[in-house]
Amino acid sequence: MDGCTQMCRVFLILFNFLFALVGFGLVALGMWLRFGAETRGFFDIDMKTTQFNIGVMVLVVTGVLMLLVAIIGDCGACNNSKAALGVFSGLLTVLIIIEITAGVMAFMWSDRVSDELVNFYATIYAQYVNTQSSAQAVTLEFFNNAFDCCGVGGPIEVIVRNTCPKGSFLEQLTYSSCPGAIKDVFNSKAQLVLGGFLGTAGIMTLALVCSCVLQRHVSVSHASPPAYVLLTSPPSAARMI
Questions:
Q1: How do residues 85-136 score in pLDDT, each as one tens digit?
Q2: What is the disulfide pattern of this chain (predicted)?
Q3: What is the pTM for the complete model shown?
Q4: What is the DSSP code string of 102-163?
Q5: d(Cα 209, Cα 205) in Å, to the nearest integer?
C-alpha cells in the first residue's frame, strides 16, 4: 500500500468516526425532542405538531443514515472490502447531493425560515406571559441569548426580563426586539450558511475520492496476485521466473 492510499485510509477512518458522532448527536437530539418530558409538554401547546413531527423524523432518519454510512465506511477501510467501499461511496454520494440541495434551499428560503422563527418566537412569548411555563422560559432565554435580543418590540414585561441576556437594567431596556434581530441575522448570514453546507459537502467529496482510491487499490491487489513457483517445477523454470 503506497503513501497516498495509506493517507486515504487513515482519512476515511477519522472521517467516519466524526461522521458517526454527528449522526449519533442528530438521533439523540431528535429522540429528546420527541420524547423528552420538557419538550413533550412544551410542544403540545398550540403548535403545528405535524411539522414538528416531520422535523423530528428528518433528524432521526438523517442521523441513522449517517451512522449506517460511517459503519460501512469504516468496515470497508479497515478490512479492504471492495463491496463495503462501493456501498459507502453510493450512500455518501446521496448524502452529498442532499447536503448541497439543503444548502441551496436554506439560502433561497432564508426569508421564509426567518419568518417562521419570528412567528415561533412571538407565539412562545405570548404564551409565556400568560402561563409562565418553565419550558417556555428556557426557549425564550435560548433565543434571547442566541440573537442578543429580548422581547417583541415595545416595553418588555417584567416576567420576561429574567429571560433576557444578562446585563444592567439600562442594557435590558435598550435590547433590540427579537423579530428584527432574527431577520437581520438571516439576511446577513445567509451566505455563511450556504458556505457551511458547501464546505461540508466538499469534505464529504474528499472522503468519496479517498474511497474510490481505496477501491482501486483493492481491485489492483486482487487482480495481480504475487508470482509463485510450482513445487513440481524444475530448477531451470524457477530460475527463469
A1: 899 999 999 999 988 998 888 788 888 878 888 888 888 888 888 887 777 7
A2: 150-164
A3: 0.65
A4: HHHHHHHTHHHHHHHHHHHHHHHHHHHHHH--HHHHHHHHHHHHHHT--SSSSSPPGGGGGG
A5: 6
